[in-house]
Amino acid sequence: MLVEVDEKKYKRYFPADTNPFISEKFTELNNNKADRIFRLVENTEKPVIGLTVGLKDGILKSPFSAPFGGFHYKNEKVYVGEIESFLQQLKKFVIHMNLKGIDITMPPDIYHQTFNAKTIHSFLRTGFEMKTPEITNWIDLLNFKGEFSQKNSREYYRQALRNRLTFSSVTAIEEKKVVYNLICENRKKFGRPIYMSFDDIEKTGQLWPVDFFKVSAPDGELAASAIFYRCHPSICYAVFWGDNEKGRPLRAMDFLAFHLWSHYKNSGFSFIDLGISTEQGNPNEGLLRFKESHNATSSLRYSFFLFS
Question: Residue ranges per domain, the chain?
């Protein structure tokens, strides 16, 4: 059976976080967004799998305030049978606690492909239902050779160079707000939700470095911007990025993408997690095409649920 343990004991069982959004410090920052936090492990001396979930409206959620959640585990070579056993016990825990159900979104494969494969297989075998998977994208920086692989994207970048754009990082608080406001305008224009306030981003910056970037036109006006997390040893995460009406004809996004890829490759990262190109399973064709034409690989991000 599964048992609930406190923060210290859970951390002793699982000192390493498989992705940043299930870390204890991230959970603590956002615990006010859940009715209660559960840290669940098998009732053994040496549990091999753990799960931190937030209770919201009677449903256990992982994540309860993040792009994705998932499990802690001792190592990726955990047996499939152990994963299935944990999921079966999780179902019993939901029933025992008289809860409405459970909802879990797994991280993209770049975080742990082997464990993902076994866990997704186990979800289906143990009776969980799968939502329409989201299409997620990532950049393999190890294979980025300093140019885009697609001819059109290379030409758009050359156009951006002729337009004399400049790329720079932003550190002053007022400039950061300008960067964020451009993102809000971009998302509003394209009908995409924005789930974080500027204050939310600043608070997250207490956990790990948050990078703000801008692309400026020759007259100094903002043309595009980006906000990224450096929250993993080898993977940086694209929180928000976008352009405005000024930047669109100047090819500011092509310019921004090239400099972001180059910046993080030179900083020693292996991957950029660009996030999903779908919303609740519905594809954003333009966004997906842009990412793929600028060296992004598409894969699936899986979510599973079970209602009691």
Answer: 2-130, 138-300
Q: How far apart are CA 249 and CA 49, in angstroms?
A: 50
Helix (H, G, I), strand (E, B) or coil at 64: coil
Contact 238, 226 (CB under 8 A): yes
Q: Return the CATH superfamily for domain 2-130.
A: Gcn5-related N-acetyltransferase (GNAT) (3.40.630.30)
- Rounded Cα gap, residues 5 and 37, in angstroms: 11
pTM here is 0.95
Peptide bond into 20 cis (omega under 30): no
CATH architecture of 138-300: 3-Layer(aba) Sandwich (3.40)
Residues in the chain: 308
The conformation of residue 33, written as its DSSP 8-state character, comes to G
Round to whole Å and give the CA distance between 82 and 41.
Answer: 12
The answer to whether the beta carbons of residues 242 and 284 sit under 8 Å apart is: no
Q: pLDDT (tens digit, 9 = 90+) per residue, 183-229?
A: 999 998 888 888 899 999 999 999 999 999 999 999 999 999 999 99
